[in-house]
Design goal:
The structure holds two protein chains of two kinds.
Chain A (H helix, E strand, L loop, with lengths): L3 H10 L12 E6 L2 E6 L10 H7 L17 E5 L9 E2 L3 E4 L9 E14 L4 E3 L6 E5 L8 E2 L11 E2 L9 E5 L2 E4 L2 E6 L6 E4 L1 E5 L10 E11 L9 E7 L3 H12 L30 H12 L21 H10 L20 E4 L4 E9 L2 E9 L4 E10 L7 E4 L4 E9 L2 E11 L2 E10 L5
Parallel strand pairs in A: 1-5, 3-17, 18-23, 19-22
Antiparallel strand pairs in A: 1-2, 4-15, 5-14, 6-7, 6-13, 6-16, 8-11, 8-15, 9-10, 11-12, 16-17, 18-19, 19-20, 20-21, 21-25, 22-23, 23-24, 24-25
Helix pairs in contact in A: 4-5
Chain B lengths: L3 H7 L8 H30 L37 E5 H7 L4 H5 L5 E5 L5 E5 L7 E5 L2 E2 L21 E6 L3 H4 L6 E6 L12 E10 L4 E12 L2 E12 L2 E2 L7 H8 L10 E2 L4 E13 L3 E16 L14 H4 L10 H4 L1 H4 L3 E17 L5 E19 L2 E19 L5 E18 L7 E16 L2 E16 L3 E2 L9 E2 L4 E14 L5 E12 L3 H5 L1 E4 L4 E4 L7 E13 L3 E26 L4 E3 L8 E27 L4 E15 L14 E9 L3 E10 L15 E14 L3 E10 L23 E9 L1
Parallel strand pairs in B: 4-7, 26-30
Antiparallel strand pairs in B: 1-6, 2-3, 4-5, 6-7, 8-9, 8-36, 9-10, 10-13, 11-12, 13-14, 14-15, 15-16, 16-17, 17-18, 18-19, 19-20, 20-23, 21-22, 23-24, 24-27, 25-26, 27-28, 28-29, 28-30, 30-31, 31-32, 32-33, 33-34, 34-35, 35-36
Helix pairs in contact in B: 1-2
Chain lengths: ~450, ~775
C-alpha cells in the first residue's frame, strides 16, 4: 500500500504527465575496433521502454522499430516531453552499460542524410514544409576548436579558437541535407566505461523561431569513437511533433512496413554482474537501482536470465529484501539521506499554522470534485471558511467532505511537526466545528 | 584549529592538544609572556625613572619641605577630521539598527545596501560594490571569510558585539589594500580590552525577540580588571525560524520567462529552509601600561543557516529518471530515507565556523616626534561546509594571517601622519563537489603612508601605498569533473604590483561648515576566483571561467562633499564620480553548461538544468552617484524635540566600452523621510523609504519593482538604582508588509526580503 503522504509528495511533484512520454535511448557498445548501437535492454530503466512503447503505439506483436528498406534502427522521441515547450526535447539519450565502452572513451555523433517529414494530412513521408528544420546542439568541450592553453586565450583558462567562444555548436538537419557542424560530442564515458547523456533537439524554422507543423520528423545519424576506427551503423530518430498515438504509429508503421525479412540486430555482449545491486549496469548502486528492484518486486517478476541481477541477495526471488539490500549497498552521496526536513505546506495535503490560525486544505474531495480551501481558526474549536476554489486532484489522501452529513474528514493534518487526524462538522454560515483531533504516527513511521 | 578553543579550555596537558592547536597556543602563550616581560621591564624603568618626582628640594635633615600629590595629566589627541564619505554608527543608533547580519544592520545607512541570499546572508554593498571590492574588518583586521567567493556565503562578523561600526564609502586602499577599492566596513567590538573597568567589573546583557520567524538574539559582555590588567568576555546565541513574507518566495512569472518552467515548488507566506542558528563567544586580555598596552583575544563563532529552496535546483520534474519510476511504486515503506522529500529535493545548509586569534600592541610617545607605535595581528581559521540534504558536499577553508605595524608621527606641529606596513598570508581551499576554485596560497605586502597638513581652516591630506601580491595555485592543472575538456595547465605564480594614492582638501569657510574634495587613485589586484575559477557555481547559476592574465583594476574617484551643522539643522551632501579602468566582470560567453550531463553546449533544451558560462574579463566602467541627508529640529517642546530627517541616495554604473551596458545588481534610487520625537530618556521615530524600480538591471538580469518601506522604533532608557541602566526598545520593519525584491540580491527572484517584523528588546548595562 502506498503511504498516502509519500504518494502525495511524489504525485504533487510528478504533475507533468508529458514528462512521462516513453522514449528509446540509444545504447552504445564497442567490440574491437567497431562501435555498435541498439535498443537499451535494461528492464524498467528510463529510455529502455521498448515494450511500453510498442504497447502504447499498438505495434503488431514482435515488431521492432526498424526501417524495412535498410534495417536501420528507429529510436523514438517526443517533442512534447519537456515542460518548457512543445518543440524541444532532450531525447533520445545515449547510454552504455558498465564496461561496454572503454574508460574515458569519447563518443561523438555524425549527422547523415536529410530531414524527412510525415504529413498526417496525406499520410506520407516527404520534405518538411517551409524550410522547417531540426537543430541539434552537441557537446563542445572535445571539439577540435577547443584551446586549453591560456596563453592563446588572452589569459582565459580555455576558449574556442582565436581566443573566443565563437564556435558553431549546432547541427542542422534540413530537407536539403546537413548544415552547420555535422559532428559534435555526445559525451565522454566515465572510468567504468559508462555513458548516459542527452542532447538538445529543437524544431524550428530557418529564422531560428521555435515551432513547426504537426507531424513526425525523421533524422539520421551514426556515432563515432575516438578509440575505434569503425563508426556505428547509421540509425534513425523519429520525433513526434503533436501527433496522437495512432497517427504517430501510422508514421512509424509506414517506415517499418514488413520487417520480418530483416536480419536480427546484433546484440551487445553479455555483461557480467560485477557490482551487486547495480541492476541498470551503470557502474554504481544508486536510487534508480533500488527503485527498479522495487518495481520488479511489485510486479512479481519471475527470475529470468536477463533480470537475474535484480535478485541481489541470491535467494531466487525478486522481492523487497533485494531492494533493501541494494539500498544498503548504495554508495553515492545522493543515495542515503537522513530525514531532517519536516512536512511543510509544500508536501502535505492539510497544514495548520498555529501562529496565523490558518488551516490550509490543499485538496478537499467532495463527490467527484476537488477543491482548495483556507479556514481561519476563531475560538472554541470553530473554524471559519475564508476561501474555497475549485482545483484539480493533487494528493492521494485528500480531505473528504460529505455533502450529505456536512462532515469533513482530514486523514492527516500537519501541526508544528506533529501529525493529527481531524474531523470537522459544517455548522452552516461557513463555520466548521472541530469534533475530533487525535495525534497519529509521523509520516514515515 | 576549530576544535582548539574547547581543547584549550578542557585539556590541561599541551601534548594532548592537536598539533595545529599547539602551534596557535604557543603563539598566544609567547605573546602573553612577552607582554609580562614588557610590563616588568617598564616597571623597572619606572623605578629608575625621574619623571614622577614631585618633591621640592630636600632640606638638610632630609625632610621634604612640601610634598605634592602625584598628578597624571593625559593628553587626548584630537580626532582626525571625519571625511564626508565616512560615517560612524555607534551608541543608541547602532543598538537600534543591529540585525542578524552586518548587511541588515547597515542597510539604512546612506550609500549602503544589503545583498541578501535569504536572511542567513547579509553582505553590505557600498555604492553598488561588494565582494572582493569591499573589505569587512573586525577592529582593523579582515573577517577573512568566503563572502568574496560566492554570494551565499555569510560574513563572519557578529553584529551583536559591535560597539562602533565605521563605514567608508569609496576607495580606502591606502591603509587596507586593494580589496578596499570600494570601501570598508570596520566593526569595532573591543574584544581586546583597551581600558580597565572603573569598578572592577562592568558589562552588558541584551536580549531581543523578532516576531518574523520567531527569532531570538541574546548576548552578554563582561569587562573585568583593575589598573594594568583588563579582561573581557562575551557570548551570544541566535536562533530563528523560517522567514515570513507576503506572497510566494519564488517569482513564478520570472521562472516561466527565464527557464520555461510552468510548475515550480512554491509555498505561500514564508521562505522554507531559511532558519538559522548561531553561537559564539570571545575572551580577551590586555596589559595596560602608562604609555603602552598589549592584548590578545580568542574568539569563535558557529553559524548554521539554510539558503532558500530553488536557488540550487529548479525543476521538480527532473530527478535523473526517478520521476518516471516512483509514481509506479505503490509502497515505499522502508525507503523513505532515499525517496522522501528531503532526499528528492534536498535543502542546502551552510555550517560555518570561524576561530580568530587577535593580537594588539601599542606604545604611546616612545620618543619625541613619535606619537604611537602600533601592532595588530589576526590569525583567522575559517571554514564552512555546504550540506545538501544532510550530506556534506563541499568544504571551504580559509586560513589567514593578517598583520599591520604602524608608526604615527607628529614631528611638526602642523604635519602629522602615519607610516605602516601591512601583510596578509592566505591559504584557501575548496574540497568536495562544488570546487570551482583550486587550492591556492595568496600573499601580499603593502607599505603605506598617510600625511596630513593643517593650516588655518584648511586641511590637506594625502596617502600613498605600494603593494605587492603573489598568488600560487597548488595545482599544476585544472580538470573539469566528468567532462571531455582536456586538462588546463595553470601558471605556477601570478605576481601583481600596485601603487595607490589619495589626496583630499578640506576647507572650513565658516564654523560648523566644511567642504571636502577627495581624489582617489586605487588599484586592486585580481582575486583568486577571478583568476582561477573553472566549473559550475550553483549559487549564482553560472559556470565560471577564470582569467590568469587579468591586470590590476584601477579606480579613479573624485568625491565632493559638503556638510553643515547648525544648532537646529544639519546638512550633508556627497557627490562622486568613479572611473574604473580594467573593471573585472563576468562576460557572458553565450554558451551554456548542462549540469547533469556535465557538457558544454551552445544552447540547451532545459534552461533549468543549464547555467550560462561566464568568463572573467576586464572592461572600463564608470559610477556616478550621491548621498544626501538633511536633519532638522522642527520644534523644541517641554516633552522633547520633534526631529525631521530627509534623505536620498543613488548610484548608476555603466560600462564604457563595447556598448554602455549597465553594471548588474546596483541599488535603485532611494529617498525618504524620518520623523522623530526625542527626549533625554526616550525616542520614537517613524521612517519611510521609497525605493524606485531598478530599470537598469544589467545584461541578462531582471528588473525589480519599486517598494515602500515603513519602519518605526521606540526606546526608553531607565535607571535601575545606581548599579545598572535598562534600555527597552521596539522596532518595526516593513510595516506595510511589502514584497521587496532587492536589486542587489542574486536571489531576488527566489527569496524576497523579510515581511513585516517587530523586534522587542532589552539591554542592561552595569
Amino acid at each position: 500500500m502506498l503511504h498516502p503522504a509519500l504518494f502525495a509528495i511524489v504525485a504533487a511533484l510528478m504533475f507533468n504527465q508529458a514528462a512521462a512520454a516513453p522514449h528509446l535511448d540509444v545504447e552504445v557498445w564497442g567490440q574491437g575496433n567497431a562501435l555498435f548501437t541498439g535498443y537499451c535492454r535494461t528492464p524498467g530503466v528510463v529510455g529502455c521502454e521498448l515494450g511500453r512503447l510498442a504497447e502504447s503505439l499498438q505495434l503488431p506483436a514482435g515488431t521492432l522499430p526498424r526501417e524495412a528498406a535498410t534495417g536501420k534502427f528507429i529510436f523514438l522521441a517526443d517533442f512534447r516531453d519537456f515542460s518548457g515547450g512543445d518543440f524541444r526535447t532532450r531525447n533520445p539519450g545515449f547510454q552504455s552499460v558498465r564496461n561496454a565502452l572503454l574508460p574515458n572513451e569519447l563518443i561523438s555523433y555524425r549527422a547523415l542524410g536529410k530531414l524527412k517529414y510525415w504529413d498526417p494530412a496525406f499520410s506520407s513521408w516527404g520534405n518538411p514544409p517551409d524550410g522547417f528544420q531540426i537543430k541539434l546542439f552537441g557537446g563542445l568541450e572535445a571539439s577540435s576548436q577547443v584551446i586549453s592553453d591560456y596563453s592563446q586565450c588572452a589569459g582565459q583558462l580555455f576558449c574556442f579558437s582565436e581566443g573566443s567562444f565563437g564556435t558553431d555548436g549546432s547541427t542542422v538537419f534540413a530537407a536539403d541535407g546537413i548544415h552547420g557542424n555535422p559532428e559534435l560530442v555526445v559525451d565522454i564515458t566515465n572510468n567504468n566505461g559508462v555513458l548516459h547523456t542527452h542532447l538538445s533537439f529543437f524544431l524550428e524554422n530557418q529564422q531560428g523561431e521555435i515551432g513547426g507543423p504537426v507531424g513526425a520528423y525523421l533524422i539520421e545519424m551514426q556515432v563515432t569513437s575516438n578509440a575505434r576506427y569503425y563508426p556505428s551503423e547509421p540509425f534513425l530518430i523519429l520525433f513526434n511533433a503533436g501527433l496522437d498515438e495512432n497517427a504517430f504509429a501510422a508514421a512509424l508503421l509506414a517506415l517499418i512496413g514488413d520487417s520480418s525479412s530483416i536480419a536480427p540486430p546484433p546484440l551487445p555482449p553479455a555483461t557480467p554482474v560485477s557490482i551487486p545491486g547495480d541492476v541498470d549496469l551503470n557502474g554504481y548502486v544508486d536510487r534508480i537501482d533500488v527503485a527498479l528492484i522495487l518495481l520488479a518486486a511489485q510486479n512479481s517478476e519471475p527470475l529470468r536470465p536477463d533480470n537475474i541481477r535484480f535478485d541481489v541477495n541470491g535467494d531466487g526471488v525478486i522481492d523487497r529484501n533485494d531492494a533493501l539490500l541494494a539500498k544498503e549497498l548504495c554508495t553515492l552521496r545522493l543515495c542515503k539521506r537522513p530525514i531532517i526536513e519536516p512536512a511543510t505546506a509544500l508536501n502535505m495535503a492539510t497544514v495548520f499554522d498555529g501562529h496565523s490560525g490558518i488551516l490550509s486544505l490543499n485538496d478537499i474531495q467532495a463527490n467527484d470534485l476537488h477543491f482548495r480551501a483556507q479556514m481561519q481558526y476563531q475560538d472554541e474549536a470553530v473554524f471559519v471558511l475564508n476561501t474555497l476554489q475549485l482545483d484539480r486532484p493533487r494528493y492521494a489522501a485528500p480531505a473528504r467532505y460529505n455533502t450529505e452529513t456536512g462532515i469533513l474528514e482530514i486523514p492527516l493534518v500537519y501541526v508544528h511537526e506533529k501529525f493529527y487526524k481531524a474531523t470537522l462538522r459544517n455548522m452552516g454560515d461557513a463555520r466548521f466545528q472541530l469534533e475530533r483531533l487525535e495525534e497519529t504516527d509521523p509520516v514515515f513511521e | 584549529m576549530d576544535n582548539c578553543l574547547p581543547a584549550l579550555f578542557l585539556r590541561i596537558r599541551f601534548q594532548r592538544l592537536p598539533r595545529a592547536c599547539f602551534r596557535h597556543w604557543q603563539i598566544a602563550t609567547g605573546f602573553l609572556l612577552a607582554i609580562g616581560a614588557f610590563h616588568h621591564a617598564l616597571a623597572d624603568d619606572e623605578i629608575s625613572d625621574t619623571s614622577p618626582r614631585t618633591t621640592l628640594p630636600e632640606s638638610a635633615d632630609q625632610t621634604p619641605v612640601m610634598t605634592l600629590e602625584p598628578m597624571t595629566i593625559m593628553g587626548t589627541a584630537l580626532p582626525q577630521p571625519l571625511k564626508s564619505n565616512t560615517s560612524i554608527l555607534k551608541g543608541r543608533s547602532l543598538r537600534l539598527q543591529q540585525g542578524d547580519t552586518l548587511g541588515t544592520t547597515l542597510d539604512k545607512e546612506l550609500g549602503l545596501s544589503n545583498a541578501s541570499y535569504g536572511p542567513g546572508v547579509g553582505v553590505p554593498v557600498i555604492r553598488g560594490l561588494t565582494g572582493s571590492r569591499v573589505r569587512m574588518l573586525q577592529s582593523g583586521i579582515g573577517s577573512h571569510d568566503a563572502t568574496s567567493l560566492s554570494p551565499d556565503h555569510a560574513v563572519a562578523i557578529e553584529p551583536l558585539f559591535a560597539e562602533e561600526i565605521r563605514i567608508i564609502r569609496g576607495p580606502e586602499t591606502i591603509k587596507y589594500g586593494g580589496n578596499a577599492i570600494g570601501g570598508i566596513v570596520d566593526v569595532k567590538d573591543h574584544r581586546i580590552p583597551e581600558r580597565a573597568p572603573q569598578n572592577l567589573i562592568d558589562g552588558s546583557i541584551e536580549s531581543r525577540y523578532d516576531t518574523n520567524g520567531h527569532g531570538t538574539n541574546s548576548a552578554f559582555k563582561l569587562n573585568l580588571g583593575k589598573d594594568w590588567l583588563a579582561l573581557s568576555l562575551g557570548g551570544f546565541l541566535r536562533d530563528r525560524g523560517d522567514i515570513r513574507i507576503p506572497g510566494k518566495p519564488i517569482d513564478e512569472a520570472f521562472i516561466q520567462q527565464q527557464f520555461g518552467l510552468s510548475d515550480v515548488q512554491n509555498v505561500t507566506g514564508k521562505i522554507p529552509n531559511t532558519d538559522s542558528k548561531s553561537t559564539g563567544g570571545f575572551a580577551g586580555i590586555s596589559w595596560l601600561g602608562q604609555s603602552a598596552m598589549a592584548g590578545m583575544s580568542i574568539s569563535h563563532m558557529d553559524n548554521r543557516y539554510g539558503v532558500p529552496k530553488g536557488s540550487h535546483g529548479l525543476d521538480p520534474n527532473h530527478l535523473d529518471g526517478l520521476e518516471l519510476i516512483l509514481p509506479q511504486l505503490d509502497d515505499l515503506t522502508g525507503f523513505e530515507d532515499i525517496f522522501g522529500p528531503q532526499a528528492l529535493f534536498p535543502s542546502i545548509r551552510m555550517n560555518m565556523r570561524q576561530t580568530r586569534y587577535d593580537f594588539k600592541g601599542e606604545w604611546y610617545e616612545p620618543v619625541r616626534g613619535i606619537e604611537r607605535i602600533g601592532f595588530r595581528y589576526g590569525l583567522v581559521d575559517y571554514q564552512h561546509t555546504e550540506i545538501e540534504g544532510g550530506t556534506p558536499f563541499t568544504l571551504f577553508k580559509n586560513d589567514v594571517g593578517e598583520g599591520r605595524f604602524e608608526i604615527d608621527h607628529n614631528f611638526f606641529q602642523r604635519l602629522t601622519g602615519t607610516v605602516g606596513v601591512q601583510w596578509i598570508n592566505r591559504d584557501f581551499a575548496a574540497l568536495g563537489v562544488e570546487t570551482f576554485v583550486p587550492e591556492t596560497r595568496q600573499q601580499s605586502l603593502g607599505l603605506y603612508t598617510t600625511q596630513q597638513y593643517a593650516w588655518d581652516n584648511w586641511t590637506v591630506s594625502s596617502g600613498l601605498r605600494f603593494e605587492q601580491s603573489r598568488i600560487n595555485p597548488r595545482a599544476d592543472q585544472l580538470s573539469l569533473r566528468g567532462s571531455a575538456l582536456p586538462p588546463i595547465p595553470l601558471p605556477d605564480e601570478m605576481k601583481y604590483r600596485a601603487v595607490s594614492a589619495s589626496a583630499s582638501v578640506q576647507w572650513h569657510p565658516l564654523k560648523d561648515t566644511s567642504v571636502m574634495l577627495l581624489f582617489n587613485h586605487s588599484k586592486r589586484s585580481p582575486d583568486i576566483q577571478e583568476l582561477l575559477s573553472l566549473g559550475p557555481h550553483l549559487s549564482t547559476r553560472s559556470f565560471d571561467i577564470g582569467n590568469v592574465q587579468l591586470t590590476n583594476e584601477t579606480m579613479n574617484m573624485i568625491d565632493l562633499g559638503f556638510s553643515l551643522k547648525k544648532e537646529r539643522f544639519g546638512l550633508r551632501v556627497n557627490g562622486y564620480y568613479s572611473r574604473a579602468n580594467n573593471f573585472i566582470y563576468q562576460r557572458n560567453t553565450g554558451l551554456v553548461y548542462e549540469i547533469d550531463n556535465e557538457v558544454i553546449r551552445q544552447r540547451c533544451v532545459s534552461q533549468a538544468e543549464c547555467v550560462s558560462i561566464f568568463a572573467y574579463d576586464q572592461r572600463n566602467a564608470e559610477f556616478i552617484g550621491y548621498e544626501s541627508e538633511l536633519e532638522a529640529r522642527l520644534y523644541r517642546l517641554a516633552q522633547g524635540d520633534v526631529l525631521l530627517t530627509v534623505f536620498s541616495d543613488y548610484v548608476r554604473g555603466r560600462f564604457v566600452q563595447g556598448g554602455r551596458d549597465d553594471i548588474p545588481r546596483l541599488p535603485p534610487l532611494r529617498y525618504g523621510a524620518e520623523l522623530g520625537f526625542s527626549h533625554a530618556k526616550w525616542h520614537t521615530a517613524l521612517r519611510y523609504t521609497r525605493a524606485e524600480a531598478q530599470n537598469f538591471p544589467g545584461e541578462n538580469e531582471t528588473r525589480t519593482r519599486g517598494y515602500h518601506l515603513l519602519t518605526a522604533s521606540a526606546d526608553y532608557q531607565m535607571g535601575l538604582g545606581k548599579w545598572a541602566d535598562l534600555w527597552l526598545f521596539v522596532r518595526g520593519t516593513n510595516l506595510l508588509n511589502q514584497e521587496i525584491r532587492s536589486a542587489v540580491s542574486f536571489l531576488r527572484n527566489f527569496a524576497p526580503e523579510p515581511g513585516r517584523s517587530l523586534v522587542f528588546g532589552l539591554r542592561a548595562t552595569f
